[in-house]
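Quick log. Single chain, no ligands specified.
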Amino acid sequence: MSERTPSPSGRIDGRRHHLAILFSDLCNSTAIASLMEPEQYAALLQSLRDIVSTAVTRHGGEIARIDGDGALCIFGYPSSHEDAGRRATEAALDIHTEVDALPMVGTGNDVRLHSGIHAGLVLLREGDMTRGRFEMLGDATNVAARLCDCAGAGEIVVSESALGADRHFFRTGPAHNLDIAGHAANIAVFAVQGREISSTRFDARTRAGLTPFAGRGPELARLHAWLANPPAGRTGPTLIAGPPGIGKTRMLGEFLKQAGDMGVAVHRGYCESYLGAPPLQPFVQLAQSMITVDSAATAAGAHTAISDDPSIAGDTGRLADGMRVLIDQAARDGGCILAIDDWQWADGASRKLLDALLPIIDLRARIVLVSRDSAPRFEVMPAGAVIHLPPLPGGDARAVTGALLSSADPFLTERICVESGGNPLFLEELCHAARRRRVNASAAAPSAWLDMLIQARFAQLRPDQAALVRQAAIIGHSMPAWLFTAVTGTGIEDPLIDGLAAADFLYPGDISGTLRFKHGIARDAVYRTIGLDERRALHHKVIDALHAAAMASGGAPNLDALAYHYAAGGDLGAAIPYAIKAGDAALLAGAVDRAQAHYRAAFEALAVNPGDAESAVLIWKLVNKYGLACIADPSPDQMPVLARMAIRMAALGHSQALVRSKYWIGAIAYGLGDGRRSAADLTSALLLAREHGQDRLIPQIELKLAQSLLAAGDYEAAGAMFDGVLPVIQASAGRNDREALAYGLCCHGFLLADQGHFAAADLRYADASALMAGAAIPLLASYLTQISAVSLMRGQWAEALDQAQRCIAACGSTHARYQAMMANALGAYARWQIDRDSGAIATLEAAARWFASDASRQRTSLVYGWLSEIMQRTGAAQQARHYAALAIRRVRDGGDRLGEAMAYQAVARLAVQADDRHRPEHYLASAYRSATHRASPREYALAEYCEAELALLDGNEARAATLLGRAAEAFGAMGAPAFVMRARALMPQASP
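-> predicted structure:
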C-alpha cells in the first residue's frame, strides 16, 4: 500500500499492491496473420499498441507487458486510485471502440479484441526484457488472464470484485459465476456492454437501489435549523463532512427532498475527479439547473454564468455577477438551496468563484457543500458550520445490514457491522459479497474494490503514519495500548494517533486503554499488503512483547494471541499447543466458532509436519475436540477437515481415531439435518468399531445412531435403539459422558413427546436436567429448544416463548447459529399463537430463508409446517402451498417428517376453500399416513381435528362432532389441555 518505492539502484523493490488488471488480446490472431503480409501484420500490431497505450495512459494506467498481439495493463500503480476498476473498464471500452473501427487490410475478417478485468493483491517487481516492464506475481493476474480467455470476440468480461459499487457506471449483462481452475469458489463476473449515462457516482448507485436510510436525526435537525434560522450576518456555507462512504450524499439528498417538499427551490451541482473535470463544473451545473427551472432568468446573466468563453471564465468578478443574477431569480419566491457534492475535488476556479459569491448573495440563498475534507480552504469556516457525519450507531447499522442481507442470522449481521465500522458504503458492499457467496457467519467476504479504495486513502498518509498503521495491522483489529506501544515505540497519546484518527484509520478503543481500527476491512486490506518477511518479523515482535508482559505480571499468557501470532509468524510447531489450549478455553466458554477455528488451525499446522507418534496423539485429540466444537454449530465445510484427519490417522495406523472421525462425520450430518446420511455414516462407524474391537465407543455410536434414526423419521428403530442403549450408558456414565447422555435423554424425550407420550417425555427431560449442572452452553441451548418445541406440541404457548427467549440469550455467547435461529422460530410461532402477531410471521419467514440458504436444516420441516398453517389461516394461499411443499420435500431430502402432516392439513384446508371436493381427502389421507409412520397419536388427533374443520365447512356436523370428540379424548389422555379446549370450542358448532 505504498507508492513507487525505488531501491538505491533505482529499481522498484518488490511490494504488494491492490491493483486492477486488464488483459486484452486479439481474436483469431493466427488466422489474421496468415492472411496478411508480414509488414501489414506488423502495422496492425503497432496500431493496436498505439491504441492501447493512448487509452491506458488517458485513464491513469500503466502497460506492464506487451506480448505480441496481447497487452497486460495495470491500474492503481504508481498512483493509487479508489476507482481503479472503473478506470480499467473505461480504458477497455475505449480500446475496443477504436480497434473495432480499424480497417482490415488483406482479409475480410474484422479486427476484434477480447478482454478480461480482475482486481486483487499482487507482488509487483521490476521487470526485464523477458518479463515486461513489471513482473506481477499473484492470483489476480492469473484470474484476469482467464477472464480474457473466457470472453468472446468483442467482449469485455469483468469480475464483480474489480468494479464493486462502480459497476453502475456501465451497462452490463447479468452476473454469472465462472469456475476458475484452482479456485475453491466460483468468481462472479459480467460482460460490460457500454457506459451508462450517469452524472455522479451517487446517481449510478441510485439505479442499483440505495442503502436503507437510517439514523442521522440530529444531523438533519441541524440542517433544518440552519435553513429556518440562519446565523445572524453569516452567508457562509454549511459543510457536511466525513470519510468516503459515510453517507454524506445520501443525507444531503434526504435533506434536499425534505426542503423541496417544504417549497424551497433546490439546485444541485457536483465536482468530479475522474479524467479531469472542466473548470467551474459545479457552477455551470447550478446555472443550467436554475435556467431550466426559471425561464425568466436574464439572458445576460445566464450567458455570463455558463459561458465557456475563456475571457469570461478567467474573470471571477463577472462570473460572480452573472451567478448572482441567477441566484436572485431562483430565490425570489421563498429562498433556494445551492448544493455542491464532492467539494474536495473542486477546481481552483470554482473555489475562487464561491469566495467571490459569498459576500454578494443574501440569506435567501443557502449554500451547502459535501466534502471528504472538513477544512475546505475557506478563510473563515466557523466550527458550527461543519456537520461531521459519524458512523451509523449500532442499532441503525444492524437495521440496515438486516435489510440488505434479508437474513435473520444475528451473528453474520453483527460481524458485518463490526467489519464495516458503521460505514454505510462498507456495509452495503460486505452485505452484497455475503449474499453473493452465501457465506455463513464465518466471515464477511473481502472485496478488491474496497481494498483499492482503502489503499487510495492509505497512500495519502505520511510515511511515519503509514508505518504505524502497518505495525498496528499486524497486532490485530483492536489491541491494548501497552502492546501497541511495545511494538511501535509510540504511545497512544502521541499526536500521530490523532492524525490517524482524522484519517479514519486508528482510534482509541471503546474499552479504556485500547486502540482499534475504525473498520475491520481497513485493517485486513493493509495487512495483506505487508510482505511475508516483514510480516513474520513483526509477528515475532508481538510474540516477544506478549511473553515479556506475561512474565512481568506473573499471569497466564494470552493463548489466542500467541496461537495466532506464532502461526502467522511461520512458527507452526510453537503455534500448535497454543492453538489447542486456546480452542479448549473457547469451547469451555461456549464460543464454538472460535474453538473450531483454533482446532482447525492446529490440525492444518500438524498437516505440514511429518507423521510421527507425537503428531498421531495430537491428531487423535483434535478429532474429538474438533468434533465436539462442530456438533453444536455444524457446517458442510467441517466434513472435509474430519475426512483429512481420518486419512491421516489411517496412514498412521490409529484405528480408534479412524472410528472417531467416521463417528463425527455422521454426527455432523445429523446436525445438518441429513438424518439418512447420518444414519449410514454412523452404521459404518459402528461396524468399524466392532471390527477393531473398540467396544468402549459402541454405546456412544449407538446413541448418536438412535438420534439419527429419529431425524430420518424412523421412529420405531430409533425408539428401540434408545431403549437399548440409554440404560447401558446410564449404568456406566462417567464424568465425560454426562453431556452426551443428557442430550440423548433429551432426544428420546422429543420422540416420546412427538408421539404424544408427554408424561414419559417429562421423565426423560427431568433426567437430562439433573445431569446438566455446569453443562456447556450449547447443551443448555439444545435442551431449551427441545422443551420449547415440546411445549408447542402441548399448546403451552407462553411456556414455549419463555424457553425460546432463554435459549436466544444463551446463544449470544456461543455463536451457535442453528440453535439461535431455531429458538427465534420457536418463539415466533408461540407469539403468533398467543396474539396473531404479524411481526412473528416476518421472523418465521426470515428464519425459513436462513435455513434454506445456510448449512443446518435439522428439524426445519417444523418451521415450514408452521408457516404453511399460518399462511393458510391468514389467506395467503400461494405462500401456504410454497411452505407446504418445502416441508414435504424435507422428507425426501433427509427424512425429517416433523412438519409433514401439518403441511398436508394446510393444503387440505386450501383445497376446500378452492371448492376442490376431491383433493381434501387425498391430502388428509397423507396427513394420517404421516402420523401412522411416526406412531404418533398426537399427530393423528391433530389430523382428526383438521378433518372435523373440513366436515363443518361441508355441512356434515355429525361427522365433525364424532371427530372432535375423539380428538378431545386423545388430547386429554396425553395431557394437552389447550388442544382439548380447542376441540370443545369447535364442538357446539357441530351439535344439532
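The CA atoms of residues 510 and 620 lie 41 Å apart.
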